[in-house]
Design a protein that fits this description.
Elements (H helix, E strand, L loop, with lengths): L1 E9 L13 E7 L5 E10 L8 E6 L16 E6 L2 E4 L2 E5 L7
Parallel strand pairs: 3-5
Antiparallel strand pairs: 1-2, 1-4, 2-3, 4-5, 6-7
Length: 101
């Protein structure tokens, strides 16, 4: 699994039928310390995430292992919303105190 911060939404009115009903987010990849890497990915949401949240996502065939994405052509899927990220005994991210940057 990989870390990302949701930076925006993606809306597509024309798509294959199997993607109907999925919500898509533009996610900026983060390193393990929570710092932005300047790389972006579009991921399908399977957990009810929102813009500004830090999330865990998967890529490849693992993206189809949720109830929301089963048997759909998803290559990246948000699997969890991060509440706290701790590295080497130090909290580097806490959802309740995040400034939104």
């Amino acid at each position: 699994m990989l870390l990302a911060k949701i930076r925006g939404t993606l809306v597509s009115s024309q798509k294959v039928e199997s993607l109907e009903g999925l919500k898509f987010f533009v996610c900026e990849q983060l390193d393990i310390s929570g710092k932005p890497l300047g790389k972006y990915i579009v991921a399908a949401d399977s957990v009810g995430a929102g813009v500004g949240e830090v999330v865990l996502y998967v890529t490849g065939s693992c993206g189809r292992y949720t109830a929301a994405t089963a048997d759909r052509p998803c290559d990246a899927t948000i699997m969890a919303i991060v509440d706290t990220l701790e590295v080497d005994g130090r909290a580097v991210y806490e959802k309740s105190t995040d400034t939104g940057t």
